[in-house]
Specification:
244 residues; mainly alpha; Non-ribosomal Peptide Synthetase Peptidyl Carrier Protein, Chain A; two-stranded antiparallel sheet; 9 helices; 2 strands; 2% strand; elongated; disordered N terminus
């Protein structure tokens, strides 16, 4: 039956851990070694004096795959990995990449710019003011700075606060107008579609003309008309009065 403390790690590419028995053997060999040979052993006297716990074993260590052939190659690979994992500090040029987006309020653009400026502590007041102006959209604040420029970023912030308040006031006024129009539409009586009005009109009815019934045949009536000299009379069809 296998000792559970000596169970080898079967994972490919790793060295099997050493159990308690193996560690005790190593410790025993170190204790018996001469004093001059113990100098290179990574165990202090305190560690050697302590008893090893029963469940103690070494961790599984990945085996060396032979990929590195020299210390110079190891040194080069280490520096490359260290340099690639290192977070590079941003420069002043990164501030010129911060630009105001379309339909972005001045307040939000200023917040984004300040967040980027905190990552560049070496940026001067002049550089920050220039970068902020370059990223502005063509609006009221841009035109104001174009007419009267500032060289210090703190002075630019003081002027920006005024235009931020103006934008917020305009947005609030626009929202209040929209709410008022919505209330008026909701309170106004709904208009019925034109189709309903047309439906209420009675349909067109042809009116049948009713004439006085003749007491003589129509042929005799035309003969009498000719005798009296009445011209340009067009014969018409005989009409009968509706029977009651």
């Amino acid at each position: 039956m296998k000792n559970p403390n000596q169970t080898a790690d079967k994972q490919k590419g790793t060295a099997p851990p050493i159990g308690i028995k193996g560690l005790q053997d190593v410790k025993y060999q170190i204790e018996r070694a001469p004093e001059d040979e113990r100098q290179g052993v990574p165990f202090t006297g305190t560690v050697m004096a302590d008893e090893l716990p029963l469940n103690c074993r070494t961790p599984a260590i990945a085996k060396y795959d032979g990929a590195i052939g020299s210390f110079q190659e190891f040194h080069s690979l280490f520096l490359h990995q260290f340099a690639s994992s290192r977070k590079l500090q941003k420069t002043e040029l990164s501030l010129f990449a911060v630009r105001q987006k379309d339909d972005e309020p001045l307040k939000e653009y200023l917040q984004r710019f300040n967040a980027g400026a905190l990552e560049v502590p070496a940026a001067t007041q002049e550089v920050k003011a220039t970068a902020f102006f370059q990223g502005l959209l063509d609006g009221d604040f841009f035109k104001s700075l174009a007419k009267k420029s500032v060289s210090k970023f703190d002075a630019l912030l003081a002027r920006a606060v005024k235009y931020i308040n103006m934008e917020e006031a305009q947005a609030a006024k626009k929202d209040s107008r929209g709410e008022k129009r919505k209330e008026i539409r909701e309170e106004a009586p709904s208009k019925k579609p034109r189709g309903d009005i047309r439906d209420r009109k009675p349909p067109f009815q042809r009116v049948n003309a009713v004439y006085t019934p003749l007491t003589v045949p129509i042929t005799q009536a035309f003969i009498a008309v000719e005798k009296k000299g009445i011209d340009n009379v067009t014969p018409v069809m005989e009409r009968h009065a509706p029977t009651s």
